[in-house]
Amino acid sequence: MSGQREEILRRLDVQAEFEKWGVRIAAKAKPDAKGWLRCHSLYSEDKDPSASINVSGGPQRGIYHDFILRLSKSLFDIAAEAPGSGMMTGRDAYFYYAKLTGVRENNEPHRPKPTLADIEAFQKNLTPETIQFLKEKRGLTEESIKKFQVGWCTKRERNSIPVYDMTGLGPTLVNVRFHNSKKKPKTLNWAGCGEVRLWGLERLAKSPPGSAIIICEGELDSALAEQETGWVGVTSTNGAAAFQAEWVKHFRGHHVVLLYDSDLPGRHAVASLVLPAFKAAVEAGEVLSLKVVWLYEPPAEPDHKDLTDWIVKDGGSGARLKEIIQQTEPHDYPTPVSHLEPSIQLSSFEQVDRSEYAGKRVTVPLQVYGENTVAYHGVTRVVVASCPALRDGKCSGKKGPDGKEMSGACLQPIEIPLGSRVMIAG
After folding, report:
1. Over the Cα atoms of the chain, what is R_g?
2. Among 42, 84, 133, 386, which has the minimal tally of Cβ within 10 Å of its Cβ?
C-alpha cells in the first residue's frame, strides 16, 4: 500500500489539493531544501504562518504539519475532514485519489449502497427528544419530518436525510446525508455516495408547469422552505458552491427563487455560479423568472444568516416569506453598455490622416490576407476572475445608465466584438 500511496501523491499536485481543502499558503512562500512550504494553520487563527505542507518528492510528500498544535496529518486525512468533501475517513480519501489518479488499489472494500430499509431504520431511531429538537431548532413539523424521511443515525450521531435521483424507474435512492451542526464536519455522505446531487429532484420533476421552485443552501433549509410556502424546495448537496449548470434544464417552465444563506459564501455562490448558470435559460424564456432573495443585509451574523435562523430565531413566517418573494423584482441580467461616441464610417484607410478626423473614432474596412485571418487570434471574451470589493461584501455590482445597481454585473463574461478583437490583437 505504501508504494501505491507514493505513486498517488507523485501524480497529484499536492499543493493545489491542500489549497482546495482550505490550506492557505503563506505570501511569497517557497519550498525549503526538504520540500516544506510554509502555510497558515487549518485549526487556529494565526497572523503569521504556523504550519507547513511538504511538496517534495520524498516520503514526506503530502504531509501537513501544525507547529502550534504539534500535529501532523496526511493529505488524505485533511481531505476527509474538509466540509463538503463527502468523505468520512482518510481511507475513503485514499481510495478517492487512487481512482482519480488511475492508481489501482486491489484491496478497496466493498461499499454497500443505502437501501430503503436503512431509511426506515433511521426513522425508527427518532426519539421524542430528537423530534422535539427538529421542531424547535429546525422549525420542522412532524408531518415534514415524515414527508422528507428525516431520521437519526446513532452511529454517526447525526440526522439522516435521503437523496433521490430520477431514473427510468422513477425516484431512486442514491445517497444519505448525515447532518449535525454541532459536529465537524457538519455534514457527511453515505460512504462512496458523495457525488454532488440535486436534492429534491424527485419532487421537482412532478411539479406542475408554471409553479415556483425555491433553491436554498442545505437540505433542512430547503425542507423548511417547502413546508412554509408549499412550493418545492431543492438544494445542491455538498455546499453552496456545488450547483451544477447542467441542472438548469430541470427548472424549465418554472419560476425560480434563490434563497441562499446571506453570508459571504452564499452571496458569492449566487453571483459567480448560480446566476451565470441560469442566464441563457432566463433570457430565452425557458425559465419563466428568476428572483434573488436575501433575508439578512450584509454582513450577516453566523447565527442569523439563513432561512432557519430567520424563522426559528427572528420570528419569520411562511406568509411573510411569500410576501417578500412576491415583492422582489425578477433578476435583470445587465446588458453591456458602450460609453464611446459613435464611430465615423470611412471608405478607405487613406482617409484616416485627414485633420477633420483627428481625435475621433473612425471605422475603416480592413481585409487581411494570409494564414492569420481570424482577427489576429485576438481576445474573444474577458471575465473578472477576482473582485476584492465583491468578496468582502462592499460592492454589489456596477451601476447602469439609470443609476440602478446591476448585481453581479462585473462577474458576467464580457464579449469582445470582432472589430475590437482586431484592435486589441494589433
Report:
1. 26
2. 386
